[in-house]
Amino acid sequence: MTTERIGPPLTAGERETLRAFLDYHRATLAMKCDGLSDEELRRRSMPPSTLSLLGLVRHMAEVERTWFRKVINGEDVPLVWSDEGDYQVAYDASASTRAEAFAAWQSEVEHSRRIEREAESLDVTAYNPRWDEEVSLRLVMLHLIHEYARHNGHADLLREGVDGTVGA
Q1: Separation of CA 51 from chain center
Q2: Nearest to 144 by CA among 52, 41, 72
Q3: What predicted TM-score, i.e. pTM, was given to this entire model?
Q4: Sign of the alpha-carbon torsion through 11, 60, 44, 154
Q5: Residues 6+ apart with CB under 8 A from 74
Q6: pLDDT tens-digit series, residues 25-79
Q7: Residue 129 to residues 16, 71, 126, 139, 150: CA-CA distances in angstroms?
């Protein structure tokens, strides 16, 4: 499996640029997982952490679901892996497979893309109960870019620990 990663445009409008950077970071996470077995994807960073590449994929499924479906779209859906709203559950991928984690993540990414496309503008706002504040779609997209970028740094180190592969 080889993931295609397309760089963001050098000149584009704000929405197209945000969309492209978000997709670039999504593809980066997928690239970090290319060519690894389920066992390698489940390999933890170091005790007592449960952090693994597969755990990051599961976590980002929860992040996509929360910010786009629950916050922006106002859907009353539980987290994928925790009915109690415990985001840490997703990190423990000890019983997970690539197929299970990637199916959930890709499904949430598709929901996110649809919700973003259907939104009238980046100025659309919705209530975020965790922050007790209104947030804009613009902020959500920037937040996800930040979240992916941060976790892609973790993915760099995790991948290097699995097979020595470095860089994007």
Answers
A1: 14
A2: 72
A3: 0.94
A4: positive
A5: 126
A6: 999 999 999 999 999 999 998 878 889 999 999 999 999 999 999 999 999 999 9
A7: 28, 8, 10, 15, 23
